[in-house]
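Lab notes, practical 5.
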Amino acid sequence: MSRKKRTAQPEERLGKLAAKQHGVVSRKQMRHLGMSDDAIDHAVKIGRLQRVFRGVYAVGHPRRDERSRLMAAALACGNGAVISHRSAGAFLGLLDKGPVVIDVIAPPSRGRKIDGIRFHHVRAPRLEETGTFDRIPARARRGRWSTSRASSVNGRCAAPSSERRGSKCLTSLRSKPLSTRAAVG
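Output from the prediction step:
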């Protein structure tokens, strides 16, 4: 009986963590929960975990929405990584659609290239330029999202329709706090 309880605890904690992170967890997090590499590999083999990016897995389901992909990209890139550029713009509702490849700013120590993620080699964002929106770390430097920037994105206004006036974009997004810009759910 006690043996079953010990093996169930990491799985229960894994489910709770995955629920907080849009259904995805990193291998590093699973190790921290007490799972061995053999246990993780076995869970992948039998389909309990599905690989999203190198070292990041969807727990118990193959379905992945945009939020789980963004969270998985941030987890794959390590501590300090934030969703950025066009991916952050789409996530925050400043663009109608984001790119297929996820834009990320990550610490230089993040290591090798990861398929499906585009790394941007820029200075690390300042604390006031980043935030967690629906528990996903993202860069939100709104000062760069102006009419001129908007018109360079496929010739369309980057602001969502609620921010548009005819064919013009509002250049100031400072009137809305960032927490209301990100859709919740």
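Observations recorded by the TA: The mean pLDDT is 75. Residues 54 and 143 are 33 Å apart (CA to CA).
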